[in-house]
Design brief:
The complex is a heterodimer of chains A (about 475) and B (about 190). Chain A contains 14 helices and 25 strands. Chain A is α+β, with helices and mostly antiparallel strands and about 475 residues long. Helices cover about 20% and strands about 35% of the residues of chain B. Chain B is built from four helices and six strands, in the order H-H-H-E-E-H-E-E-E-E. Classes of the chains: A alpha+beta (about 475), B alpha+beta (about 190). At the A-B interface, strand 14, helix 8, helix 11 and helix 12 of A face strand 2 and helix 4 of B.
C-alpha cells in the first residue's frame, strides 16, 4: 500500500474513474487532506442569522479546527480561530451566545473584536501582569486570535485560512444560480433566508468524503431509500406528487459539475423561465397534500406565483429542486428540506455532520412548522431517509479497511463511457445524463489537484491545463 | 437557581408522606407500564407499542447545547420553535414503525440488539383527569452487526393517561445527555 500513498495526488485515476480506497482509510492521506484541503479551501461556517445581534457568537468548525463566528459591536462578521495564542486553550467553550470579549479560562488572555477598542479583530485587550511579566512589550495585535478570511453570500458565511485562495465569489462562479435557488426567498426575492434555531450535530463512522459525494452527485442510490418510499414519505415524494396531480419535475433533473472547483449538483437545469411557469413546491407529506394546512398551501402557492413572475425571462432554475455540494465538504438541498450540511473530518473513518434548516425570514409559523417537521423526519440521525445513507457510508468505510478490500478501487464509471459529449452550462458541464457519476468524477479531479499541489498557484496551473484539455475534447 | 433545563422539568420534589398503599400501588402500576413498554421496544414489537400511545401523542427530543452559566433557557432547543432530534405526532410515529417493518430499512437491518433500562421512576399525580407525570432515567444499549456499540443515557418525562386498567402514553419528552450525538442514527425510540 505504501507505494500508493507516496503520491496522494494520484490516488484518483480520471481516465478510468477509479479511486484508491486509501483515499478513505489511510491516515497519511487524511493528514494531507487536513493540510491541503481544509487549510486551503473556503468552508461554510454558519449563517449570519445565527449571529444576528452585535456580540453574538456561534462556535463552528473549519476542518478539525474550532472557530468562533462572531459579529462585533459595529456589526461586522468575523471568523476567529478558537485557540488561545498563549497555550492553545479554547477561549470559547459554549456553542453559541453573546459576549463582548473572549477570555481564556487558563491565564486570562482576553480578546476582542470591538472596533472601538482594537486595531485588528481578535486583538488582545487584556493580559494578566502585562506590565510585570511582559514589561508591556508583548505585541497585542500580533498575539491576537488568528483571523480567517471570510466572505458572505446571501447570509452564508464562508472562511478560509489561505491568503492565496481565489476570492470566494470567483470560486463559486456560476454555481451561484443553484445557491440562489437555496438562498432566495420562496417568492423569488433575493436572499432573506434565516437559519432555524439549533444545529443538528452528530458523529458518523464514515470518511467525510463518502457523505459529501453523495450530495455532490449520486443520483443512483434509490435502493438505499426504498423503505422510506414504501411508507410514502421518501425523497422523491412520488406518492404525494402523483396524488397532487402537479407536474413531477424530478424526471428533468440532471447532473451538473463545476470541474475547475469540484462543486456539483443534481437538479433541474436552469433555463429561461417562461411566462406561464407553474411551479409549486414539492411536498413530501406523510399522507399527501391533504395534510398540508390550508394556510401553508396558500402561502407556498402565492410564493410560487410571485417567484415565477420575478424570474420570468431570466436564466434561472425554474423548479428549485436541487441537491448539491460545494467543495470540499458542504452539501445542500434547496427545498423540502431546505438545508445545509457540513461533514467535518474527525479521523479517516469518522466525520461529524452538522445540519442547518433554512426558512424565509418572516414566514408564518405554520410554514416554518411544516418545514421543520418535514426536515426532522427526513434529515439527520432520526431522519427516515438519511438514516439509510449513513448506514451505507459507515459500513463502506469499515469494509474498505480490509487489507484485501483496500487494494480494490472505488468505481465511478456510471455513464463515463455512455455519456454523450458534455456540453457547457454556464461554467458548469453536463452530459444531460440522469444517472451519471460525472459530478463525483469532477469532485475527485479537484480533490486530486489539491492533494498534489503545494499551493493555490500550482492548483490553478493544473486546473488551467485540465480545463484546456476538456475544451479540446 | 438552576433552571428547568438542568432540572429537566419541575424542581425535584421530595415525595414524603403519606407513604400509603395508594401511592405504592400507583408507583407499581406506572412501573409495570414502563417495563412492559421497554419489553415491546426491545423485541421490536413496535406495532404493539403504538397501541400504548394516544392518538394525540407528542414525542419530543430536544437538542442540548453548551451555554454559559445562567443562560439555561437556551440549554435545550425550544419546543415548537427550534430543531430537535425528534418532534413527532402519531402519523409520523406510525410511519417510522412501518419503515422498521419493511425489512429493508438498512439502518436497522439486521435488527440491532437493544436493551432499554428504565430507572429512577418518580410519579406525580395531576390534580384532574387522572393523568400522571412520570420522570425516569433511561440507559439504552445497542449492539449493531458485530462490534458497533451505542450507549445513550438521559431522562424522560412522560404524561400517562388512564386507559382501561392501565395507561396510554400521551406525551414523552426525551432529554438525551449529549450535545453532539455520538452515534450515527436514532432508528429506535426511547
Amino acid at each position: 500500500m505504501t507505494e500508493l500513498i507516496t503520491s496522494p495526488g494520484s490516488l484518483y485515476d480520471p481516465d478510468h474513474a477509479l479511486l484508491a480506497r486509501d483515499a478513505y482509510v489511510n491516515e497519511s492521506v487524511y493528514e494531507q487532506e487536513l493540510d491541503r484541503i481544509f487549510r486551503r479551501g473556503w468552508m461554510f461556517v454558519g449563517h449570519e442569522s445565527q449571529v444576528a445581534k452585535p456580540n453574538d457568537f456561534f462556535v463552528s468548525r473549519m476542518g478539525t479546527d474550532s472557530v468562533i463566528l462572531t459579529r462585533n459591536a459595529q456589526g461586522r462578521v468575523h471568523v476567529l480561530l478558537n485557540s488561545c495564542r498563549h497555550k492553545g486553550m479554547r477561549v470559547c467553550r459554549y456553542d453559541e451566545g453573546n459576549a463582548r470579549r473572549f477570555q481564556c479560562p487558563y491565564h486570562a488572555w482576553t480578546y476582542s473584536t470591538d472596533g472601538s477598542l482594537v486595531e485588528a479583530p481578535g486583538q488582545l485587550v487584556g493580559l494578566q501582569q502585562y506590565k510585570e511579566a511582559y514589561e508591556g512589550k508583548l505585541d497585542k495585535v500580533e498575539w491576537g486570535l488568528i483571523q480567517a478570511r471570510s466572505a458572505i453570500y446571501k447570509g452564508l458565511v464562508f472562511a478560509t485560512w489561505d491568503p492565496e485562495a481565489p476570492e470566494f465569489a470567483e470560486q463559486l462562479g456560476d454555481m451561484i444560480v443553484y445557491m440562489d435557488a437555496l438562498l432566495d426567498g420562496r417568492d423569488g426575492s433575493p436572499g432573506g433566508s434565516e437559519a432555524v434555531g439549533g444545529v443538528l450535530k452528530w458523529r458518523i463512522n464514515s470518511n467525510w468524503k463518502a457523505a459529501t459525494e453523495n450530495f455532490i452527485g449520486d443520483p443512483l442510490h434509490g435502493v438505499s431509500h426504498r423503505s422510506v418510499e414504501m411508507v410514502g414519505i421518501g425523497p422523491t415524494g412520488s406518492a404525494a406528487v402523483s396524488r397532487s396531480g402537479i407536474k413531477d419535475p424530478s424526471a428533468d433533473m440532471i447532473d451538473v459539475s463545476f470541474p475547475r472547483w469540484g462543486h456539483g449538483v443534481f437538479g433541474v437545469e436552469p433555463s429561461i423561465v417562461p411566462a406561464d411557469s407553474d411551479v409549486y413546491p414539492h411536498f413530501q407529506v406523510p399522507v399527501g397534500p391533504a395534510d398540508v394546512p390550508d394556510v401553508v398551501d396558500r402561502w407556498h402557492r402565492e410564493a410560487a406565483k410571485k417567484r415565477a413572475a420575478a424570474l420570468e425571462g431570466t436564466m434561472s432554475v425554474e423548479w428549485p429542486l436541487i441537491v448539491g455540494g460545494l467543495f470540499p465538504n458542504m452539501a445542500f438541498h434547496t427545498t423540502f428540506p431546505r438545508t445545509i450540511a457540513v461533514f467535518h473530518p474527525v479521523a479517516p473513518g469518522v466525520c461529524e455532520a452538522w445540519r442547518w434548516l433554512l426558512v424565509d425570514k418572516g414566514s408564518p409559523k405554520e410554514v416554518r412548522d411544516l418545514a421543520r417537521h418535514h426536515f426532522l423526519r427526513y434529515s439527520g440521525p432520526a431522519g427516515m431517509t438519511e438514516q439509510d445513507d449513513m448506514e451505507n457510508w459507515s459500513y463502506l468505510t469499515a469494509a474498505s479497511r480490509g487489507t484485501q478490500a483496500r487494494r480494490h478501487p472505488y468505481n465511478y464509471q456510471a455513464r463515463l463511457y455512455a455519456d454523450g459529449p458534455t456540453r457547457e452550462l454556464h461554467e458548469g458541464r453536463t452530459s444531460g445524463g440522469n444517472g451519471t457519476e460525472g459530478s463525483i468524477r469532477s469532485y475527485y479531479r479537484a480533490w486530486s489537484r489539491h492533494m498534489a499541489a503545494e499551493s493555490w498557484e500550482e492548483y490553478n496551473a493544473m486546473a488551467d491545463r485540465e480545463m484546456a484539455d476538456m475544451d479540446e475534447a | 437557581m438552576i433552571s428547568d433545563a438542568y432540572a429537566y422539568s419541575e424542581q425535584p420534589r421530595r415525595l414524603g408522606a403519606p407513604h400509603d398503599l395508594k401511592r405504592v400501588l400507583l408507583q407499581h402500576r406506572v412501573e409495570e407500564f414502563l417495563y412492559y413498554e421497554a419489553d415491546l421496544l426491545d423485541q421490536w414489537r413496535y406495532r404493539e407499542w403504538l397501541e400504548l400511545t394516544t392518538d394525540d401523542i407528542r414525542y419530543w427530543m430536544p437538542l442540548r447545547r453548551n451555554v454559559k452559566f445562567g443562560e439555561w433557557d437556551r440549554e435545550r432547543s425550544a419546543e415548537l420553535e427550534e430543531l430537535a432530534w425528534m418532534d413527532e405526532g402519531r402519523p409520523t410515529l406510525e410511519r417510522r414503525v412501518e419503515q422498521l417493518m419493511t425489512g429493508i430499512h438498512w439502518a436497522a437491518e439486521p435488527l440491532s440488539r437493544i436493551s432499554h433500562m428504565v430507572t429512577n421512576v418518580r410519579v406525580s399525580e395531576q390534580p384532574e383527569g387522572g393523568e400522571v407525570t412520570v420522570r425516569s432515567r433511561f440507559l439504552v444499549y445497542r449492539n449493531h452487526l458485530e462490534d458497533e456499540e451505542t450507549i445513550l443515557i438521559g431522562k424522560r418525562e412522560d404524561v400517562l393517561r388512564p386507559h382501561g386498567d392501565s395507561y396510554q402514553l400521551a406525551r414523552r419528552a426525551v432529554f438525551l445527555d449529549q450535545s453532539v450525538l455520538l452515534t450515527k442514527n436514532l432508528t429506535f425510540l426511547f
